[in-house]
Amino acid sequence: MSKAGWYLSSAVIANEYVKKKMTIGASNKLRVDFWKAWQCSGSLVNTGEMRKQVERDVDAALANETYTTNIDGRIKAQRIYLEKSAEAAQAYGCGNCGEQSAIAFVYLRQQKIFPLDWMEVDGYKHAFVIIGRKSGSDTTNYATWGEDAVICDPWRDVVATVKSEASYFSTRKPNWIYGEAG
Fold it and tell me: Torsion angle, CA of 123/129/134/138, rounded to 10 degrees?
């Protein structure tokens, strides 16, 4: 099996895993499932409150840390934020694209599928995972990510090669949040 095939298979499994964990769903999918969106936005779980708790957990985890550079601190904060977001979303069964992609990232990391990148587009309007981005490629230019790069996007329920999603990326500016090479 090719690398891209392996990454695609892994992304399908990760998306299915996220679906199982999202017992309530996403608060911002009102058109898709009003009842679940209503439950996630306040009646059973308040996504905003869940995120505030994640931020408090991150602050507590970083309270006694020192870093040699600001970049080291930012990367550690992003890793902790990713892990706490995934943990909270799984505990509550609720989360939007950021939480769902965090669950997928953590799942893929546990399965030792690398390299992994937690990405966003359009100023944090949407988050997803990229599997297999070429080392040294420009994180803001999807065309440099390589033939094997795959998008794992549980919120949109998309698993595809980045190449086949060119129309999606051509209208959005990707931004790297956090990654691991393995």
Answer: 0
Look at residues 153, 115, 162, 154 and name the one whose alpha carbon lies nearest to residue 134: 115
Give residue 105's Cα distance to chain centre: 6
CA nearest neighbour of 86 among 10, 172, 14, 158: 14
One-letter amino acid for residue 3 of the chain: K
Report whether 133 contacts 105 (CB < 8 A). Answer: no
Over the stretch 57-108, which tens digit does the pLDDT of each residue have? 999 988 877 777 777 888 889 999 999 999 999 998 888 899 999 999 999 9
pTM for the full model?
0.90
Tokens 């959005």 belong to which residue?
Answer: 172
Domain boundaries, the chain: 3-180
Q: Which amino acid, one-letter code, is at 77?
A: A
Whether the Cβ atoms of residue 23 and residue 93 lie closer than 8 Å to each other: yes
Q: What is the separation, in whole angstroms, between the first and last Cα of the chain?
A: 20
Query: Please, are residues 142 and 159 in contact by the beta-carbon 8 Å criterion?
Result: no
**How far, in Å, CA of 112 to CA of 144, rounded?**
23
Evaluate if residue 43 carries a pLDDT over 50: no
